Amino acid sequence: MTTKASVALGLALLLGAGACDGRPVNPSADSGPSADSGISNPPTPTPTPTPTPVPPPEPDTCVVAVRFGSCCPQIVAVQSSELAADKCLRRWPAQRPAECPQTCKALCEPAAPLSRVAGIGANGTCDFVDECSTASDCRVGYNAFSCCDCGDAYPNAFLAQHPCYNGDRANCDDVCPAGGPVCDCAAPNFPVACVLGGDGGLNRCAYSPGAP
Fold first, then answer.
1. 3-state secondary structure at position 91
2. Distances 10 to 6, 7, 16, 40, 87 between C-alpha atoms, Å
3. pTM, entire model
4. How far is Cα 124 from Cα 57, in angstroms, rounded to an integer?
5. Choosing a second label site near 149 at 20 to 30 A (CA), which of 93, 97, 172, 186?
6. Rounded-to-integer distance, Cα 108 and Cα 130, Å
7. For residue 161, what is the enclosing H or E element?
8. Are 100 and 68 in contact (CB under 8 A)?
């Protein structure tokens, strides 16, 4: 055997040995990493949970209240659940409780709300709202907390929440002294009306000389 033939035979045997053990003779450069190359896929990110929206308060849970701070009281519209959480927050109308004394020297004028009805305002929270749309939403009520109250125009929504303004003193504190006085109330001079765009731009129940 010649030298060239011996070299050719040796090369053939070498190539055949590589093919028999399953390894490619010329592995491709772009065959990619093997399973044990140490490269792993990035972890799948955990999705951020969507927060549960807080529902707005129900309209019938909004009330007109008075907050007695260290100085003059403030009339506010709040959820009824807030009354139990604050001893100085009382449903309007109310007298200043003993546990919430006034410590400033200001002479406070009697506070009156923009409306005697609270509901859901434009911002989605409790706010002062219209007392009426028409005169049928109003009627005469009588304040049982006043000894001689001759009546005033109130919204039906307010009277429904305040039985002591419906003329029945049986279940309300009697503020009249024993034996007097004798109250002489004449009929209202003007009919009850729904006055549009009153204080703060809100409709309000009132006696109106211009009402039909």
1. strand
2. 6, 5, 10, 41, 103
3. 0.64
4. 8
5. 97
6. 26
7. helix 156-161
8. yes
Reduced to 3 states (helix: H, G, I; strand: E, B; else coil), residue 128 is strand
Peptide bond into 93 cis (omega under 30): yes
List, in order, residues 6 or more apart from 189 with CB less than 8 Å away: 207, 209
Angstrom distance (rounded) from CA 5 to CA 118? 109
Cα distances (angstroms) measured from residue 58 to each of 64, 65, 127: 14, 16, 12
**What are the average pLDDT values for consecutive 10-residue runs of the chain, which has 212 residues?**
49 47 49 53 67 52 92 94 93 91 89 91 91 95 80 91 76 62 68 85 85 51
- What's 166's DSSP letter? B
Task: Identify which of 210, 208, 203 has the alpha carbon closest to the alpha carbon of residue 114.
Answer: 203
How far is Cα 83 from Cα 70, in angstroms, rounded to an integer? 18
What does the alpha-carbon distance between residue 128 and residue 104 come to, in Å, rounded to a whole number?
Answer: 27
Beta strand segments in the chain, E: 62-67, 74-79, 89-91, 118-120, 126-128, 138-141, 152-155, 192-195, 204-207
Contact predicate 155/138, CB 8 Å:
yes
Which of 205, 121, 200, 195 minimizes the C-alpha distance to 156?
205
13 Rama sector, left if φ>0, alpha if ψ -120 to 50, beta otherwise = alpha
